[in-house]
Amino acid sequence: MPVSPPVSAPVVEVRDLRMTYGTNEVLSGVDLTVSAGEVVCLLGPNGAGKTTTIEVLEGFRVRSAGDVRVLGEDPARAGDAWRARVGVVLQSWRDHARWTPRRLLTQLGGYYAPYSTPDRPRPYDVGRLLDTVGLTEHADRKIVTLSGGQRRRLDVAVGIIGRPELLFLDEPTAGFDPQARRDFHELVHRLSDLEGTSILLTTHDLAEAEKLADRILILAGGRIVADGSAEELGRRVAGTAEVRWACGSERFVHPTTDVVPFVRRLVEQHGDELTDLEVRRASLEDTYLAMVQRSEAGLRPGPALEEVTR
Q1: What are the pLDDT digits (tens) for 192-218?
Q2: CATH 3.40.50.300 spans which residues of the chain?
Q3: Do 12 and 217 touch, CB atoms closer than 8 A?
Q4: pTM of the model as a whole
Q5: Which among 159, 184, 209, 252 could disulfide-bond with 89, CB atoms 3.0 to 4.6 Å apart, if both were Cys?
Q6: Which CATH code is given to the segment(s) 1-85+164-181+190-237?
């Protein structure tokens, strides 16, 4: 059985990944890394190659060129022992409609038992997992009778039953109500913080990406055009923040690159006269749209993109 890579080694390491379909080059040199325990979100417009990239990393699609290492192996050649270390949550799971969640998870969990290790016992205890994803009350109902949100919770349970070291999440909260989405976000943080699970997710929900991701990658034009935290990327889009304040009924707005000194001066100058104070930075949506527009315009990613956002 392959030995897990040391903590310092990247869990995912991709260099110059390329994918061509006929004469259409979908990926034209993707570079990315994911570290142990890191939550990374891959964003991009439809057709940017997100699904292709993820399928290559999962071992479901053979790349045209480039070097790819996932958990120390080439996914295109990895065997069952490697697959036992990887979890996948697809956009939908509709098989075994007449099974119950408990029966399905028990059956699937059995496949992971031979790959259990002292530091990572496999599979998850089914009862505990059902409770974790909020399906305990529905554990013995036929899957065909579950609501869309309940089936989505089951999708997540199927993806993590083997206690993966690396988890791929494709639009994980599609169909979730607000409470289920919040519960899922807590689960992601628990997997990352307590289990040391590395997570690579795709989503069109930018607020979700901002809440969950340690790092955000933006894929456009066949390449990664941005890599960093939401805050770091925001600073690349616009080096200034907008400070808004009010003194009584008068309201003011001022852009500044030095937020803390400016706010300190405001407080020193106006003191108790300040009745409102707000600092606004570029949102992830601003950042995402600016960088995608820049890529589509054929411009190289740069340290500042003010001309795109104006």
Answers
A1: 888 889 999 998 888 888 889 999 999
A2: 1-85+164-181+190-237
A3: no
A4: 0.78
A5: 159
A6: 3.40.50.300
